[in-house]
Write a structure and sequence with these properties.
Elements (H helix, E strand, L loop, with lengths): L2 E4 H7 L5 H5 L11 H10 L1 E6 L3 H15 L2 E6 L2 H13 L7 E4 L10 E2 L21 E13 L25 E4 L3 H11 L1 H15 L2 E3 L2 H10 L4 E6 H9 L4 E3 L5 E11 L5 H12 L1 H7 L5 E2 L20 E3 L4 H15 L5
Parallel strand pairs: 2-3, 2-4, 7-8, 7-9, 11-13
Antiparallel strand pairs: 1-3, 4-11, 5-11, 6-9, 6-10, 6-11, 6-12
Helix pairs in contact: 3-10, 4-11, 6-7, 6-12, 8-9
Length: 346
């Protein structure tokens, strides 16, 4: 269910930020604060943000924006699917309801819904971090790799390849996997080829008998608590989120590692067009990029360190497969995932 709140109310309801979270709110990058754009945005009063980021993480991010601009932020949180459906319904009625959207599905929507824009913070970015027509830009990197409970499994025991998992039948019943992960499956097929990829996934399921859990965060928490020893694949940001909370968990990188992106797009019918451009530029600036790392998310800016700082180094020499599936492809891979891996059992 989506929750629509004024950011001030959201902040009051959220837990008091930690010292670590508050420290990141010191403004260190004013490149996104173009004076003319700021003046025009202030005259509009506020900005409406649609996003899949939970309120607890979003509150300190948008507090930075609010403190720097003096503007209001109306935050609408929902899943990617729920927000996509809402945007399409509102588009059919030609309603001017949202200014920017920040989730992993911007590139899957019609480009006619978005305005082209050129944020100062994204000049010279690699082509894979932006839309060729400048209708969206990446805000975070989301990698799909295995994770483990460091109290249950020794680092020396970790498989060096997905084939090596087949050498560990003793892990059967102690392995978790999300009940749907089409990007991971597409990456396996791309790396191994259709026939070998299919055979490998079938062998992994037969040998490890993974429990399917609904939700990547639930998978990360189950491994962090020791309920399961291994996550066959999961998002690094969520594994780091659970690790940073003090749980004995970590990730390791196998070939191939799948990656896709959180993205920001500006509505072509934004009710606050200048505020929308300012807010989108903010998400690509150093301050917002630093803040997302507090909970383990991975910034796209190379000049912002990850948390912990060695995340990028662990990918050295590994093959990374970018997976941006359109809706038709995602449906096909989701159907295949269900056929090969099964239905949720937890």
């Amino acid at each position: 269910m989506q929750r629509r709140t004024v950011l001030a109310a959201m902040l009051a309801a959220a837990a008091v930020p930690s010292v670590r979270a508050r420290a990141a709110t010191t403004l260190t990058d004013r490149g996104w604060l173009d004076p003319k754009l700021l003046a025009a945005a202030r005259s509009e009063g506020s900005v409406v943000v649609y996003s899949s980021i939970n309120e607890e993480e979003a509150a300190p991010i948008w507090q930075i924006f609010k403190d720097a601009t003096g503007m209001g932020v109306e935050y609408v949180r929902g899943s990617d699917d729920a927000l996509m459906a809402r945007i399409l319904v509102e588009a059919r009625t030609q309603r001017k309801t949202w200014d920017i959207v920040n989730n992993t599905s911007v590139s899957k929507l019609s480009p006619t819904l978005f305005a082209a824009f050129d944020p100062a913070g994204a000049k010279g970015w690699p082509a894979n971090l932006r839309d060729p027509d400048r209708r969206w830009y990446a805000t975070e990197q989301i990698y799909d790799v295995p994770a483990y409970n460091t109290a249950r499994v020794k680092a020396s025991e970790l498989p060096k390849s997905y084939d090596d998992f087949l050498k560990h039948p003793e892990w059967a019943g102690h392995v978790a996997i999300n009940d749907s992960d089409s990007a991971w499956l597409a990456g396996i097929y791309k790396a191994y080829g259709d026939d070998k990829g299919k055979a490998l996934v079938q062998a992994l399921v037969a040998t490890l008998k993974p429990s399917l859990i609904s939700g990547h965060l639930a998978v990360a928490r189950a491994v962090g608590s020791g309920e399961y020893w291994i996550a066959l694949n999961n998002y690094i940001s969520l594994t780091m989120n659970v690790k940073l909370a003090g749980n004995p968990t970590d990730f390791w990188v196998l070939d191939p590692a799948s990656v896709f992106f959180g993205q920001v797009g500006v509505s072509a019918r934004a009710p606050h067009p200048n505020a929308a451009l300012l807010a989108a530029s903010f998400l690509l600036g150093k301050d917002a990029q630093k803040q997302i790392t507090v909970r383990g998310r991975l910034p796209v800016r190379a000049d912002v360190p990850t948390n912990p700082p060695d995340v990028r180094a662990r990918f050295k020499g590994k093959r990374v497969v970018a997976e941006e599936l359109d809706p038709a492809d995602e449906d096909r891979w989701s159907t295949l995932y269900t056929q090969l891996v099964g239905h949720a059992t937890h």
